[in-house]
Design goal:
alpha/beta; 12 strands
């Protein structure tokens, strides 16, 4: 039975009483973004998790983001509104298989995308996000032997713009894999003046036609500064809410996926969170994110290396 609760009022009361902070990723639904204390990409959420003075962190994102917050702030209670909010990219890189892969190449340094489990981060020399991946890769000597996991599309993109030849793990994000080149080109015919902007997790054909490629936060910043008035956005559609808030006079069109029944491309895991679940999470202080301490001690080092370079 649905409770007779003003969720916004109760969430505000509970976060004050419990000294809790609500962090939300750009891919959350609009109502979650609007009630959060801070909205950002993976890098920004990690930075906030590290510096917050709150006693409780509620992470409205996917599970690996909650793990990252717990790794950086082990003394804090980290909650996630729906424990089923996983990540197809993180799932594509099981820690035991990744460990075999890295051990087969012992002369390689290991760079892991933040979209991985704590156990994979513990096998890593340095973590990156899409915001800082190029910068961090370029801190290594040109002839350095590097493994990059788990996203092959982001790895291929970084190889192409840096001239590297990193050894790539064969993983991918289900959202960014599904964009339809044909449908984007048809949409471009209708909106001929629109810029195509794309996340580097997209496949190469999408990146080749994009006018601008960047992380979620970079795409948002680009739309604020661009003189263009129309944008075809090839990333998870949740970020369009922030784009419209920042530039209400501009038009933002979600890039269509291959699935003919959908006009936009949503992460099913990100969209599991609701305001009602957020309220219950704060009220009951569950589901809680935990990380094995031995794994945490190893995983925190590559994350801190990333944050120092960011």
């Amino acid at each position: 039975m649905k409770e007779d609760v003003n969720y916004k009022e109760e969430i505000n009361r509970l976060r004050r009483e419990k000294n809790a902070i609500i962090l939300a990723h750009y891919y959350q639904t609009a109502d979650i973004q609007d009630i959060a204390d801070f909205v950002g990409d993976s890098l920004a959420l990690a930075q906030w998790a590290e510096k917050t003075t709150a006693d409780i962190i509620v992470l409205c994102g996917v599970h690996f983001m909650g793990e990252t917050a717990k790794i950086l702030s082990p003394e804090k209670k980290v909650l996630i509104p729906d424990a089923a909010a996983g990540c197809s990219l993180a799932d594509s890189c099981p820690a035991d298989e990744f460990e075999k892969f890295t051990r087969a190449h012992p002369d390689h340094k290991v760079i892991s995308y933040v979209n991985t489990t704590a156990a994979v981060k513990a096998l890593t020399d340095i973590v990156v996000t899409s915001t800082n991946a190029r910068k961090i890769v370029e801190t290594f000597p040109k002839d350095a032997l590097l493994i990059f996991g788990p996203d092959r599309n982001l790895g291929n993109y970084i190889n192409s713009v840096t001239g590297r030849n990193m050894l790539l793990w064969d993983g991918a994000c289900h959202v960014h894999e599904q964009f339809s080149l044909e449908k984007i080109l048809k949409l471009k015919e209708i909106y001929s003046d629109a810029e195509v902007i794309a996340h580097p997790e997209c496949k190469q054909p999408i990146l080749h036609i994009a006018d601008f490629v960047g992380s979620t936060s970079a795409l948002l910043e680009h739309t604020k500064k661009s003189d263009k008035k129309e944008f075809i956005v090839a990333t998870e559609s949740g970020v369009i809410h922030e784009m419209r808030k920042a530039s209400p006079e501009k038009v933002f069109l979600p890039a269509p996926p291959n699935d003919s029944t959908c006009a936009c491309n949503d992460c099913v895991y990100m969209k599991l969170h609701t305001v009602e679940k957020l309220y219950r999470c704060l009220r009951d202080e569950t589901p809680e994110i935990t990380v094995d301490e031995a794994i945490r001690e190893r995983a925190v080092l590559p994350i801190q290396r990333m944050l120092e370079l960011s």
